[in-house]
Design brief:
Layout: E1 2-12, E2 15-26, E3 32-36, H1 43-50, E4 58-63, E5 66-67, H2 73-82, E6 84-88, H3 99-104, H4 114-127, H5 144-156, E7 162-166, H6 174-189, E8 193-198, H7 201-204, E9 209-214, E10 217-219, H8 222-227
Parallel strand pairs: 3-8, 3-9, 6-7, 7-8
Antiparallel strand pairs: 1-2, 1-4, 4-5, 9-10
Helix pairs in contact: 4-5, 5-6
This protein binds adenosine-5'-diphosphate (2 copies).
């Protein structure tokens, strides 16, 4: 990930909101990085830009060396579907559908052979340490921690290089949250790049490195943020 002077301005009836104000940083392949900031600091906006769901108003974003601004809508859709796995606070699983089917879902839109889909889904579920006895449970009949591990498996099933997680433990108690964070650490161990957005220092502590965001500005260290009086 290479972000160069990213800006994002929202235009609404109420006026302009400058959500990102010149954000620059890079993340190397295989790093596990937390982006931490309070509510309204620009975390979700940044996540949407990094996930190629939104474009910066100004600045340049390179993902795996590709300038995202030069990609067509079809190319962006392909990048989102195959290079990035998304994990959300609310899990976003299909209820009344089994765990295995949920994880196979992203493969429906790819060239993955039908016979290969279940094998890949099982491998992804194994990677997040979900016991096999739950694979045929409906996704609304497992615990919250299990749901989030299923969501991570679904994000993994296309073998993306990058996992983007927005407050993935926000709906979980601390013990269950730890299991989910262990699952992210395991992904880093197999070479995935993990970017985890959070407002909780205890969660950020699991990452190799933390970037701080305040009022749309990004700081590489807590000290740098303190130096400009944003603490
Ligand atoms: P966070 O995720 O850290 O809570 P956001 O990125 O959601 O922060 O918001 C940053 C700023 O941008 C806030 O002032 C928010 O109100 C504003 N904002 C976010 N999304 C929109 C939008 N779609 N339209 C207008 N303003 C927005
Ligand atoms: P965890 O500590 O893993 O989050 P819980 O204490 O929430 O687990 O749940 C314990 C067990 O009960 C889980 O293994 C799960 O299979 C089952 N369970 C939890 N919630 C539900 C539910 N809504 N419907 C059916 N089974 C559930």
């Amino acid at each position: 990930i290479q972000a160069e002077e990213l800006h994002r301005v929202y235009r609404t009836a109420a006026g302009l909101t400058h959500a990102l104000r010149g954000v620059s940083f890079s993340i190397m392949p295989g790093e596990f990085v937390a982006i931490m900031g309070p509510s309204g600091s620009g975390k979700s906006t940044l996540m949407h830009v990094l996930g190629c769901l939104d474009s910066p108003t100004k600045g340049r974003y390179l993902l795996e060396g590709r300038d995202i601004a030069r990609c067509s809508q079809d190319e962006l859709a392909d990048i989102r579907a195959t290079r990035i796995g998304f994990v959300f606070q609310a899990f976003n699983l299909l209820p009344r559908t089994t765990v295995l089917q949920n994880v196979m879902l992203p493969l429906l839109y790819t060239s993955c052979p039908v016979g290969e889909r279940e094998r890949r889904a099982r491998a992804a579920l194994a990677a997040v340490a979900l016991p096999e006895e739950f694979f045929d449970h409906k996704s609304n009949e497992i615990s919250g921690g299990q749901m989030q591990r299923v969501a991570i498996a679904r994000a993994l099933v296309n073998s993306p290089a990058l996992i983007l997680a927005d407050e993935p433990t926000g709906n979980l108690d601390s013990v269950t949250g730890e299991q989910v964070l262990d699952a992210f650490a395991a992904l880093r161990a197999v070479g995935k790049t993990v970017v985890l957005i959070t407002h909780e220092p205890e969660v950020a502590a699991h990452a190799d490195r933390t970037l701080y965001i305040r009022d749309g500005k990004l700081f590489e260290t807590y000290e740098a943020m303190k130096a400009v009086g944003k603490v």
